[in-house]
């Protein structure tokens, strides 16, 4: 059975991507804790991040850092946060979150965003990644 992330990666379900390479992708979560919240997801499904090979885990972190720097530029936030929980979907994913304050890292704060909000945030993030 495919995970929601495998369906997004393969194009079965839509996704708002900001990154794609041979090992991973990054796309907007539809329930962000703050505008610009994205998930960095390996193309191969590993149940837990500790199951991923070291080179894949290191690559995910490098991509998350690049996106975090772009989030700081795009959204004028003082920090970019990183959370790895993995309870929602059994496929490793890193939450990279623009932080205005400490509450933005709380995944329990996640709420659905409108298409317009998601599109606006992802457009700003893509622009910052290309700068």
What does this structure look like?
The chain is an alpha+beta fold. It is 34% helix and 19% strand. The chain contains three helices and five strands, in the order H-E-E-E-H-E-E-H. It has helices at residues 4-9, 54-75, 115-130, and strands spanning 17-20, 24-28, 38-42, 79-83, 94-99. The chain has a five-stranded antiparallel sheet. Strand 1 and strand 2 (24-28) form a beta hairpin. Helix 2 (54-75) packs across helix 3 (115-130). The mean pLDDT is 97.
Q: Distance N terminus to C terminus? A: 39 Å
Shape annotation = globular
Sheet with the most strands, sense and barrel status: 5 strands, antiparallel
The parts where pLDDT drops under 50 for at least 5 residues are none
List the helices and strands and how they pair.
Blueprint: H1 4-9, E1 17-20, E2 24-28, E3 38-42, H2 54-75, E4 79-83, E5 94-99, H3 115-130
Antiparallel strand pairs: 1-2, 2-3, 3-5, 4-5
Helix pairs in contact: 2-3
Offer a few descriptive terms.
5 strands, single chain, alpha+beta, 19% strand
Brief write-up:
This protein has 131 residues and is an alpha+beta fold. The protein contains three helices and five strands; from the N terminus they run H-E-E-E-H-E-E-H. Helix content is 34%, strand content 19%.
């Amino acid at each position: 059975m495919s995970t929601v992330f495998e369906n997004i990666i393969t194009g079965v379900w839509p996704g708002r991507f900001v990154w794609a390479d041979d090992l991973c992708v990054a796309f907007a979560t539809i329930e962000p804790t703050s505008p610009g919240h994205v998930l960095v997801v390996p193309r191969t499904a590993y149940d837990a991040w500790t199951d991923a090979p070291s080179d894949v885990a290191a690559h995910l972190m490098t991509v998350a850092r690049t996106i975090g720097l772009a989030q700081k530029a795009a959204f004028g936030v003082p920090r970019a946060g990183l959370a790895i929980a993995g309870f929602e979907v059994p496929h490793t994913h890193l939450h990279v979150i623009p932080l205005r304050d400490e509450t933005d890292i709380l995944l329990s704060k996640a709420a659905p965003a409108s298409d317009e909000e998601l599109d606006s945030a992802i457009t700003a993030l893509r622009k910052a990644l290309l700068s």
